[in-house]
Amino acid sequence: MSEMLSFGFIQHALMGGLIISVVFGFVSFFIVEQRLSFLTVGIAHAAFGGVALGILLGLSPYLTTVAFCLAVALLILKQVRENRADYDMVTGIFFAATMALGIIFLSISKAYTFDIVGYLFGSILGIGKQDLIIICITAPLVALFFFLFFKELVAMTFDREVAISAGIPVKGLEAWMIAAIALLIVISIKIIGIILVTAFLVLPASFSLKYCRSYRCVIGMGILFSVVIFLVGFFLSYRFDLPTGATIVTLGTATYLLPFGKQE
Fold first, then answer.
1. Which of 192, 212, 223, 229 could pair covalently with 197 via S-S, beta carbons 3.0-4.6 A apart?
2. Contacts for 260 with CB less than 8 Å, ≥ 6 apart
3. What is the pLDDT of residue 162?
4. How far is Cα 252 from Cα 264, in angstroms, rounded to an integer?
5. CB 55 within 8 A of CB 110
């Protein structure tokens, strides 16, 4: 164990993963309760189009992915509001469209050496100092937004109409919340991967809701669940030479499925 922790890349991976896990556990409650799970799937898969666009233009895939995912997230919100549609329907359209664009972008830029597989399935041991700095800045900012507007977000989560009547700027907060979730997804892709990141966003609150009645309990248990599953999954993947993101998500899903006793 001590030998493992002596490696710099392991330290980077652990630090980045722990920060992301805490924020995931916190934000998961709002995603699950507001039924935005499929929206996170759409945003995560839009990252494929963003990465492919970066490859095509010869720009930093991280920057193009941030811009692309934010644009897609806000476009989905715009379509939902203007057409009185639900998130699932609009997300389904953008889910397919952004993946299709990614394939087109890659086909145009035929010669490339970028590790697209690392983005699809995660490459936590490939986290460098620059990646860690981005995580250390962006993840706390996302958490700060949810912390500063916690009461307002909880109010609109449980009763949107009452929140509007109370003078809470629901539309503005909703847009900022979706943008914050998009940013969180983008910085998490290197750790969990485009295909798997949504599961890790949804699992903490889904697990906690089986055993908690209050939202504070759901959030607290969600954070604990997220951190423990990450640490155990990380060490198991290192010990048995397994893909880290897939190990974490599989362990989290198995834990969710196991009965641990009666609900409170």
1. 192
2. 211
3. 92
4. 21
5. no
End-to-end Cα distance, the chain: 37
Distances (CA, A) of 247 to 48, 160, 190: 21, 37, 15
Distance, CA of 256 to CA of 204 (rounded, Å):
9
DSSP class of residue 214 equals S
241 three-class SS: coil
Specify the pTM: 0.89
SS3 242: coil
**Domain residue extents for the chain:** 2-252
CA 45 to the chain's CA centroid: 11
What value does the mean pLDDT take over residues 21-43?
Answer: 93
Closest CA relative to residue 51, chosen from 9, 11, 99: 99
Highest mean pLDDT among 9-13, 206-210, 235-239, 258-262 belongs to 206-210
CATH number, domain 2-252, options 3.90.1150.180, 1.10.3470.10, 3.40.50.620, 1.10.940.10: 1.10.3470.10
Length of the chain counted residue by residue: 264
* Cα 134 to Cα 226: distance, rounded to the nearest angstrom: 20
Rounded CA gap, 215 and 136, in Å? 26
Looking up tokens 């109010």 gives: 155
